[in-house]
Amino acid sequence: MRTFRDRVRHALTFEAVALAIFIPGSAALFGQPPGDMGVIGVASATIATLWNFVFNMGFDRALLRLRGTIHKTVAIRVAHTFLFEAGLVVMLIPMIAWYLQISLWAALLMDVAIVVFYLVYGFLFNIAYDRVFPVVASAA
Fold this sequence. Notes:
This protein is mostly helical. The protein is built from 4 helices and no strands. The longest helix is centred in the middle third of the chain and has 34 residues.
C-alpha cells in the first residue's frame, strides 16, 4: 500500500505536469484566452488533486479488501482511470460553464475533450509513476 506521503507526491506531481500541458494546449484548442484556461486549469487541478488523493486511497483500500493485493492489471488500471474521470466530470461541468459563461452542453463537450486528454495522460502517468516510485515490499 502506498503511504500518505507518497500519495501526496503522486497527486501534486500528476497535477503539475498536467497543467504544464493543459493550459497552453487547451487555450489553442478551444480558442480561449490562456488566462481563462489557466483559471479553469488551476481550479480544476485543485479539485482534481483533492479527488485524486481521496479516490486513490479509497480505490487501493477497496482493491486490497476485494483482491488481497494492490497490484493493478491493465483492466484494473482502465477501470480506475474511467471511475476517477467520471467523478471529476460531475464536479467540473458546472464550474466550467459558469466561469466561461457557456452552456452546460458546451461545457460538457469541452470537458469531454479534456477528459480524453486526462484519460490518456492519467493512464501513462500512473504506469510511469509506478516504475519510478515502486511500492516498497514492506509497505505493501
